[in-house]
Amino acid sequence: MKFRSYLYPSFDDRTLEHRFIHDNNEKAARQARWGFAFGTFGYAVLGVIAYLIQPEMFERTWRFIYGFIFPTHLMAAIVIPMLRRFFYLQWVLVSANVFSNTCAILLMHLSPDEFYIKYGYGLVICIIIYTFAMLRLRTFFAVIASTLVIGQYIAYLVFGRPLPLNDAVFGIAIIAFVNTAGLVSVFFFEQNARIEFMQSRTIEEQSRQLGEEKKKSEALLLNMLPETVANRLLSGERTIADYFDNVSVLFADIEGFTSLSRRMNPHELVALLNRIFSLFDALAQALGLEKIKTIGDAYMVGAGLPHAVDNHAERCFNMALGMMRILEEENAAVPEKLRLRIGIASGPVVAGVIGQNKFIYDLWGDTVNTASRMESSGVAGEIHITGSTREALGDAAEYVDRGEIEIKGIGKMRTYLARAI
């Protein structure tokens, strides 16, 4: 942070300086409100003290104190906070301070000689202290305000109501001492205020960056996991496992992809797979399915989780039909025709997230294993389903009964090929 001068420090960045001024004005307006409220109270107490110990003083000044000073200072306490966003608030505070000092000098003018000689300069000292302690003036404006206050007092001593020389010198010396101490304190206060302002901006920027990184992390987590599951992880839950009694699981594998990979450039191959799977992702999102994972050229989705739905089997069937249409369109751009082998099974599963690193939302249970076997024992270009899936699909598809076939790891099962009506 660089300052142009000690009298009027400022940041080199004009935008930053304006932000500091507005920030300081917000605080200055709040502080000035209490300052003028305190000044209002102080003048009211002064009137009471004069009434108790110096009736002559009270008789001369009570109308001025309670009829003018009290309401004007109270009004200032009400109005100035409304100007907290006014860029030139510091000049308003300087003017208000000079006005308050003018009231003090008029009060001196109305007071008896005894009070004026003994205590008159005390009122000016109160105004000086008030300038530095209550108004939160920046250095330059504090210099202007205090100079005008002292100048008013000296002018009154010279032209209005001269004091004996010794009393005048004594009063001015004390006022000058208090003023010097106040200016030094204001100078260091502004330096510290500017340092704190920069520190707060640094913290604000770090908080903003941290917030952005947090949003990125949350977005990445939401991209990997269902929203409800991601929120549970973010809330501190570490092991998530939910039981679903009726879902459908789809496995799909691209037949011919392995042989195609031997003849295609690696970059082109990955680009092709990315294009196909991206289209699958969009289709799954449109149908309300939850993508579980991809392994090589295999693709897995589920319907009916993490939110239960009644038509989970129909959604998976429509997903399968859409995937085959997508692959047919992509076949126009590849030298060797690709076909999908798709298997669907319906039933209960356990779904959740385990481990500490590289979170993945996964499924477990016989339904998952069966769906995988439906795919591996299926027919390219067909949708191979279990009896439970056929029952759940009902009249939404046409079926080809494959009879009882041997399913690896499971045994004999009666399965079906589901086709669009």
UniProtKB/TrEMBL annotation:
Family assignment from sequence similarity: Belongs to the adenylyl cyclase class-4/guanylyl cyclase family.
Source organism (scientific name): Turneriella parva (strain ATCC BAA-1111 / DSM 21527 / NCTC 11395 / H)
Stored Pfam families: Guanylate_cyc (PF00211)
Transmembrane segments: 34-53, 65-84, 91-110, 116-133, 140-158, 170-189
InterPro entries: A/G_cyclase, A/G_cyclase_CS, Cyclic_nucleotide_synthase, Nucleotide_cyclase
Lineage: Bacteria, Pseudomonadati, Spirochaetota, Spirochaetia, Leptospirales
Protein's recorded name: Adenylate/guanylate cyclase
Domain annotation Guanylate cyclase: ranges: 248-375
Classification via SUPFAM superfamilies: Nucleotide cyclase
Listed SMART domains: CYCc (SM00044)
GO cellular component annotations of the record: membrane
Subcellular location field: Membrane
Gene Ontology biological-process entries: cyclic nucleotide biosynthetic process; intracellular signal transduction
Keyword Cytoplasm annotated: no
Annotated keywords: Lyase, Membrane, Nucleotide-binding, Transmembrane, Transmembrane helix
GO molecular function term, any single one: nucleotide binding
